[in-house]
Amino acid sequence: MSKLTSSGLRSNSLQRRTTLGGRRLQASEAQRAKVAGLPCLVCGRSPVDPAHLVPQRFGGCDDPDCVIPLCRAHHWLIDRARLPLAPYLDSDHFAAELAHALAHVTAAQLRAALQGGWPAPWTLQSDD
């Protein structure tokens, strides 16, 4: 059971978690530190989550360059392919993140995902 902090929040309530095959994964400490205090890439609100540019289910990792700052609402929309990221990713400000993403996926895959979103986990087909 988690303890309450002086602010009245549970100590584990500030840790953003993602899922991979039903298993919950936490963003790395370095990823949380990278986005701490930054505004949401889409709306400018705070606080934000460290949102993977390439989701972990597609090879994203725990490197700080693998995440961008998104508020919880926009992170939810992006994870469900309901909001394209392309209009919000300025290549001058996110060059390192875009370059890092290309270590995980092809340029065509990244372009398609930024324009239309990553496929939801339940739509992925196995090669069996």
Describe the structure in your own words.
By secondary structure, the protein is of the alpha+beta class. Helices cover 25% and strands 12% of the residues. The protein is built from 4 helices and 4 strands; from the N terminus they run ββαββααα. It has helices at residues 29-35, 72-79, 95-101, 107-116; strands spanning 17-20, 23-26, 49-52, 67-70. The strands form 2 sheets. A two-stranded antiparallel sheet has the order 1-2. Strand 1 and strand 2 form a beta hairpin. It is globular. Mean pLDDT is 81; it is low at 1-22.
Layout: helices, strands, pairs:
Layout: E1 17-20, E2 23-26, H1 29-35, E3 49-52, E4 67-70, H2 72-79, H3 95-101, H4 107-116
Count all strands and give the number: 4
Q: How can the largest sheet be summarized?
A: 2 strands, antiparallel
Radius of gyration: 15 Å
SSE string: EEHEEHHH
The overall average pLDDT, rounded, is: 81
Which structural class should the secondary elements be placed in? alpha+beta
The end-to-end distance, rounded to whole angstroms, is 40 Å
Shape: globular
The portion of residues forming beta strands comes to 5-15%
Number of helices: 4
Could you give the order of strands across the largest sheet?
A: 1-2
Detail the poorly predicted runs.
Answer: 1-22
Provide a compact summary of the structure.
With 128 residues, this protein is of the alpha+beta class. 25% of the residues lie in helices and 12% in strands. The strands form two sheets. A two-stranded antiparallel ribbon has the order 1-2. Strands 3-4 form a two-stranded antiparallel ribbon.
